[in-house]
Specification:
The complex is a heterodimer of chains A (about 675) and B (about 650).
Chain A (H helix, E strand, L loop, with lengths): L1 H18 L26 E7 L4 E4 L2 E3 L2 E3 L2 E4 L4 E8 L7 E9 L13 E11 L6 E6 L16 E2 L12 E6 L6 E5 L30 H4 L9 E2 L12 E2 L8 E5 L4 E5 L8 E6 L5 E6 L6 E8 L2 E10 L15 E4 L4 H5 L1 H7 L8 E6 L6 E5 L17 H15 L7 H9 L13 E6 L4 E7 L21 E9 L2 E8 L11 H4 L7 E6 L11 E5 L5 E7 L5 E7 L13 E6 L1 H6 L15 E2 L6 E14 L4 E12 L6 E7 L4 E6 L1
Chain B lengths: L1 H23 L7 H31 L5 H25 L1 H8 L6 E3 L7 E3 L4 H8 L8 H15 L12 H19 L11 H19 L8 H19 L9 H23 L6 H4 L31 H12 L63 H10 L8 H8 L3 H10 L10 H14 L6 H6 L8 H10 L27 E3 L34 E3 L21 H9 L2 H5 L17 H12 L32
Antiparallel strand pairs in B: 1-2, 3-4
The chains are: A mainly beta (about 675), B mainly alpha (about 650).
Chain lengths: ~675, ~650
């Protein structure tokens, strides 16, 4: 009789098994890529919040302006954190790591901090903490009363632009010199009229004429720069510029040097030309500065100082690809010099360069350099509507023709039948449907020895070399924006930050197509890899819903990445509903442990590794898997994954089963 | 013993037969998601082929080789080919569809950086539908050619779908979203303004959903068989009903909703549960407005209302709402201590005040716009008539700062409230994360937002009838609903079920419209109300298309919220209906190039207008929402303790 029961049970089990066509039923967790906080890999890495916009108190110096006259005091920090400058503390005996300079990419009127954008500076120190070798970053209180700040020890300091070089707007990217830690902030806010800087006047609006004022609501008053009086240039090293008066709007869109040690603005770099600058880098010679312009067409420019370290004297060039030197035997033939002693030329630098046939880039963002090779890297973030009809003199670089051809093939399933000249004519043409739709952007490389700009890494899905759509978002790259450089234990990496231009065309995984929020990720790319593809990206983590990740700046000791979360959704819980600066430390150990090595082994046989696992578990291919505990209870189900974050699992034995029913034993340590 | 064995063997044989039948029917072919992926790929090929034909044949129309009426039929075929893949295409690329494939035939702002704002001219299937089916197609032939070329180009991205890996969960979500879309947008005529082929298109969509759902039925257990049958028969009768429909104006949409759409919406969820397919991670689901677990389009939990606030992650929302309610009625929030939120938002008038524009502080003049209802106000992606803030909490800041309203600031307000030990204790209890300084901008705004978010109404007689909780509804109300959702086109802007500008089926975006609301009721010399609306709000939306554009408010409780429009120009619903029936501002004779309301008269007769008003009146429900606190917290400063609940005016 016992046998009968046994048989019945076996049959019953067989029956239920046959029914279970949908491998892992009910009450399961799908992989959660979205986050309302910051998701970063766990130990040995430690993530800390250093500075919260709209919340932390910032010291300011005396300020006199239309908003009132204020003695030194405090105000709440501005939001929209973008660039991070890192200035190493080289004072002998100092325990401090150095100064961070945070850009605020905003236009926000503030009586005490000044109108427009701005910057906050502060000093950080590395402190060893108990635990498995992880150290932590603290913000060091300073008393900067000698610089005009309140006579107390405090952490965050506002850079006064209003009473020095004039307000700044939309402080986006910037420059940190690796040679001496000098910092420049870039003003992307491209203005075209005085009224356009005071946004309530709404100059761009044609049909309705001046708008009636609403009541005293913030939006109605305008958050723009209230002081619109003409600006007189004084105290600059350029004697022929001193005393000249320019319309206020022309005092925006410069690279602006600041001193993070004193919290002071130094000068707007009038001799580098006025443009929608976003990023730049000072080369190892401490003479050459490369600059990128966030526009379409956007300029790539360079300034070469006469004397190393003195950026007030030197020559200014814009890049103009020379088709007669396709192999780069004469790098100088790709650069055109422009007279930077004439204020009018500098005020209109951007227009002149475009008229004179500058290379047309599609929204250049940040610029960095491999310090070991001197190679320049910069992001071309892309733009859904590349329209060059009003800029027929510009030159199209071969990389854009290449990208145009590649996307054509991917889109229509056949190779673009025309010549390069036809492709260029389409890109520059007036027929919208033939133009270049640059949805994803890319990372570019400039080689100073050839003068040529080539593509390092093309963004976006659907190429033959692209990861499978199903492996989003662990492997994809869309609209790269912030770009940093890092040396960890002798290995050189780019730090790549995304800032999505949209959610269409596979820029986000389907999971998030119907959600109201963008989400952006941060990656490392090993510069030792020749001809990298998106498959080579090492995903570090992602920032809260609605935010872009930016600021990527590494400490020189290769241990810490500082980064910003910008404009997160207000629906996130505090403090993740504010822009903020964070530090993630422990990279030296991560490299030692091999965490950043390429783990993409492939194969059809069901396999998982590493085993035992502490953090991320890799699978042989993208598939559905379920995880069971030692008693056979199903804990979680994951669909379409090739890696799983196991860090939340407690130490012990587990089983991983795939959709075909194959099972592997897994030890979590 | 033998008998036992014999019995067991026969049972076994029976079971084996059952098992093999299970494994054979569904087991011998690929799983539904694979079959659907293959079918999607084929349907995309067909669509792209139809697209090429539509573009090529248009050139033949231009050269006189093809008859326009034959071409119109062909264009409708293109739309139907799109409708066949719509439920998945909309799921995977909603933004592309809206911008370039099947968005409203209006200019759209394609967000870039501030200096690169691009207003895209109307394009896509809807725009073409309007042009091709108009009498002016001859004059517009160049434009039609360009639009077809553009559409063909944009549609080439559908090839991306051919590489899409489908999962069962996504398919079920796509199906149920499509049911909402088909009822709230498709059948209202929202997306085929020219051909008005809505019913045929809805049928095509239902066929595609039927096909997808049917693939899953063989995998269900025996216990589900009656529901399986119900699913099949409901699909079949829905399709049959649409096939034999009497015409766009006459279609009984209430019948479609209650007999087909809602039952299918529930049954597909049941099937999902039956199959044991996973749901979206609940933590992530909370960050989306649409609640997948809802069982009816008019369910109380169709939307996660806290999605629209910063409160989604909080667990003590009731405590916050209680505190927020005290603040709402407390005049201590104003600098003059005589004015509260309730000054302009009276519970008895569904939280409005009966005035064209509310009194300003000190009774000196008025504020700039009409006081809107707070009930169901939470259901919005953006707040204010000009859509200038992103989250409910930020909406309150304006009232605090405005010199015409509270005329104070958060620092001062926090200091003042801190002088009440009672308030301080309540804030400390509600916001432990802020320690000893619990009263600040964030906590004040959170509490008020929690109270406003609690003011939602789901129990009007219309809701109860649709949910099957109430046997019948007056014929005139049903007629009004059908007109609202059909001939009168109200539902193409006041989207069901909230009947405001929150766009289904994802409910992620609040729309604004340019109606041409006049400054006065003078119809002889009508002039536009000077309020610029949305164009003056956000820097990144400063484009012509938003001049005089205002948020679409809910029509729920509208019987209680007179006067109407952003400036309170109309005293009665009859006046409002007359305005729409004439074609808005342009219909009245105002010159307004960017009006989004079609300027043509609606052609509603008095009986129809009366029915629509009856329907709107039947949407009233303020039950449980109107009570006022009986006392306010005490202050150390005793003179403050005489303040009047709700303020002096």
């Amino acid at each position: 009789m016992k046998k009968i029961y046994l048989l019945a049970i076996v049959l019953f089990v067989a029956f239920t098994a046959a029914k279970a066509q949908f491998a892992f039923p009910v009450e399961i967790t799908t992989v959660n890529w979205g986050t309302t906080s910051v998701q970063m890999p766990p130990s040995p890495l430690r993530t800390q919040i250093l500075f919260i916009g709209g919340h932390d108190s910032v010291a300011h110096t005396a300020i006199n302006h239309v908003g009132g006259n204020f003695t030194p005091g405090f105000s709440r920090a501005k939001q929209w954190h973008d660039y991070i400058g890192f200035t190493q503390d080289t004072i002998s005996g100092s325990q401090d790591l150095g100064w961070l300079s945070i850009n605020h990419e905003t236009v926000f009127r503030d009586d005490r901090l000044g109108d427009g954008g701005g910057m906050t500076v502060f000093k950080v120190r590395r402190v060893s903490v108990p635990g498995p070798g992880v150290d932590s970053i603290v913000v060091v209180p300073q008393n900067l009363s000698t610089q005009g700040f309140p006579n107390v020890s405090t952490r965050f300091f506002n850079v006064d632009f209003k009473n020095t070089v004039g307000e700044t707007g939309m402080n986006c990217g910037g420059i940190t010199s690796y040679n001496d830690g000098r910092v420049w902030t870039a003003e992307e806010w491209f203005r075209t009229s005085t009224s356009s800087i005071f946004t309530a006047q709404n100059a761009g609006f044609s049909a309705a004429g001046p708008l009636p004022m609403l009541d005293s609501g913030v939006a109605a008053l305008g958050n723009g720069v209230r002081d619109t009086a003409a600006f007189t240039i004084t105290g600059t090293p350029w004697a022929n510029f001193n005393g000249q008066t320019i319309a206020k709007w022309r005092n925006f869109n410069w690279m602006v040097e600041i001193n993070p040690r004193t919290g002071k603005a130094i000068r707007k770099q009038y001799n580098w030309g006025r443009s929608g600058w976003e990023g730049g880098i000072v080369a190892n010679d401490n003479r050459t500065v490369y600059l990128g312009d966030d526009a379409t067409p956007g300029l790539f420019a360079k300034f070469v100082a006469t004397t190393a370290g003195n950026f007030t004297q030197g020559d200014l060039f814009f890049h103009k690809y020379n088709p007669n030197d396709p192999n780069g035997s004469n790098p100088d033939s790709h650069w055109v010099k422009i007279n930077n002693n004439n204020l009018d030329t500098m005020l209109n630098f951007n227009d002149y360069a475009k008229q004179l046939g500058a290379t047309a880039f599609d929204r250049l963002e940040w610029v960095t350099m491999d310090r070991s090779t001197g190679m320049i890297y910069f992001t071309e973030t892309g733009n859904d509507n590349v329209n060059l009809t009003n800029f027929q003199n510009v030159v199209i670089n071969p990389h854009m023709v290449q990208a145009y051809r590649a996307r054509y093939q991917q889109r229509f399933g056949v190779a673009f039948p025309g010549t390069d000249a036809q492709a260029i004519s389409n890109i520059k043409g007036s027929v919208d449907s033939l133009r270049f739709k640059d949805y994803y952007g890319r990372i570019l490389r400039y080689n100073p020895t050839t003068g040529l700009v080539t593509t390092l890494l093309e963004g976006g899905p659907y190429f033959a070399s692209s990861p499978s759509v199903a492996s989003y978002p662990s492997k994809h790259l869309t609209n790269p924006d912030g770009l940093g450089y890092m040396t960890i234990n002798g290995r050189h990496f780019l730090i790549i930050n995304e800032d999505l231009n949209g959610r269409t065309f596979g820029r986000t995984p389907s999971e998030f197509q119907s959600s109201g929020n963008d989400y952006c990720e941060m990656y490392l790319l090993d510069l030792a890899i020749q001809n990298p593809t998106v498959n080579n990206l090492i995903r570090i983590g992602m920032t809260p819903f609605g935010s872009e990740v930016t600021g990527a700046k590494a400490s020189f000791d290769g241990k810490t990445i500082f980064f910003n979360v910008q404009h997160p959704s207000k629906n996130n819980p505090f403090p993740y509903n504010n822009s903020m600066t964070l530090a993630i430390s422990g990279w030296d150990e991560a490299v030692t442990l091999g965490l950043l090595d390429d783990n993409s082994k492939k194969g059809d046989a069901f396999s998982i590794w590493p085993n035992p696992v502490a953090r991320e578990l890799y699978l042989n291919k993208i598939q559905d898997v379920a995880i069971y505990d030692a008693t056979g209870k199903r804990l979680e189900v994951f669909r379409n994954v090739e890696r799983i974050d196991m860090s939340a699992y407690t130490t012990g034995v587990y089983y991983v089963r795939n959709a075909e029913g194959q099972t592997q034993k897994l030890v979590v340590e | 013993m033998r008998k036992a064995y014999f019995f067991l063997i026969s049972v076994s044989l029976f079971l084996v037969a059952v098992i093999s039948s299970f494994q054979q029917s569904p087991g011998n072919q690929p799983m539904p998601k694979e079959r659907l992926a293959k079918q999607l790929s084929e349907d995309v090929n067909l669509l792209l082929g139809q697209m090429i034909l539509a573009a090529d044949h248009w050139e033949e129309v231009r050269s006189g080789k093809r008859d326009i009426n034959a071409y119109r039929k062909e264009f409708s075929k293109l739309r139907l080919a799109y409708k066949k893949v719509e439920f998945l295409a909309e799921y995977f690329e909603p933004n592309l569809i809206k911008l370039n494939i099947n968005g409203a035939p209006l200019p759209k702002l394609n967000l870039g950086t501030e200096s690169m704002m691009v207003v895209e001219e109307p394009n896509g299937l809807q725009t073409l539908d309007e042009l091709i089916f108009s009498e002016e197609y001859v004059q517009e032939q160049n434009k039609i050619s360009d639009l077809l070329a553009k559409l063909r180009n944009e549609m080439s991205w559908f090839r991306g779908f051919q590489k899409q890996v489908l999962t069962d969960r996504e398919i079920f979500e796509a199906v149920r979203l499509s049911l909402i879309r088909t009822f709230t947008l498709g059948l209202t005529g929202f997306d085929c303004p020219g051909s008005v082929n809505s019913i045929e298109e809805a049928k095509t969509v239902l066929l595609s959903l039927q096909n997808a759902v049917t693939m899953y039925l063989p995998y269900t257990s025996k216990g589900f068989s009656s529901k399986s049958k119900k699913l099949s028969s409901t699909f079949a009768s829905a399709i049959k009903y649409l096939e034999s429909h009497p015409g766009f104006d006459e279609l009984d949409r209430m019948h479609v909703l209650t007999n087909f759409i809602n039952p299918l919406y529930t049954l597909v969820l049941d099937l999902h549960l039956e199959l044991g397919i996973e749901f979206k991670n609940p933590r992530h689901a909370l960050l989306q407005p649409w609640n997948y677990s809802s069982k009816n389009l008019f369910d109380e939990n169709l939307l996660n209302k806290y999605y629209y606030t910063g409160l989604a992650q909080r667990t003590n929302r009731d405590t916050l709402a209680k505190l927020g309610k005290l603040l709402f009625f407390d005049p201590v929030l104003s600098a003059s201590n005589d004015r509260s939120c309730a000054s302009c938002h009276h519970p008895s008038k569904a939280f409005t005040d009966g005035m064209a524009k509310s009194l300003a502080t000190g009774m000196q003049g008025t504020v700039d716009r009409n006081s809107p209802t707070c009930i169901d106000a939470v259901f919005a992606d953006r707040f204010f008539y000009d859509l200038r803030t992103d989250v409910l909490e930020d909406q309150i800041e304006h009232v605090v700062h405005s010199s015409k309203e509270f005329n104070t600031n958060y620092a001062e307000l926090s200091r003042k409230l801190g002088q009440s030990p009672e308030y301080k204790a309540m804030f400390r209890g509600a916001f432990p994360e802020f320690g000893e300084e619990p009263i600040n901008e964030s906590s004040i705004a959170s509490a008020l937002a929690a109270y406003v978010a609690s003011l939602t109404s789901y129990n009007s007689s219309v809701d109860k009838y649709i949910r099957g909780e109430q046997k019948d509804l007056p014929a005139e109300v049903k007629k009004g609903f059908n007109l609202f959702m059909g001939k009168a086109a109200c539902g193409t802007c006041h989207f069901a079920p909230v009947f405001n500008g929150l766009v289904p089926p994802t409910f992620l975006e609040s729309e604004s419209e340019v109606l041409g609301v006049p400054a006065t009721t003078d119809t002889l010399k009508p002039r536009i109300d000077p309020d610029p609306g949305r164009v003056a709000a956000k820097v990144k939306e400063r484009v012509d298309i938003y001049l005089h554009s205002f948020k679409t408010p809910t029509v729920r409780n509208t019987a209680l919220t007179a006067p109407y429009m952003h400036n309170g120009v109309y005293k009665s619903l009859e006046e409002v209906m007359d305005f729409y029936n004439k074609g808005g501002g342009v219909g009245l004779g105002i010159t307004l190039p960017n009006q989004t309301l079609p300027p043509d008269p609606l052609g509603l007769n008095q009986g129809e207008i009366k029915a629509i008003i009856s329907f709107m009146k039947a949407l009233s429900d303020t039950s449980g929402l109107t009570d006022v606190p009986t006392r306010l917290p005490l202050f150390a400063e005793t003179s403050l303790n005489n303040r009047k609940i709700g303020g002096n005016y």
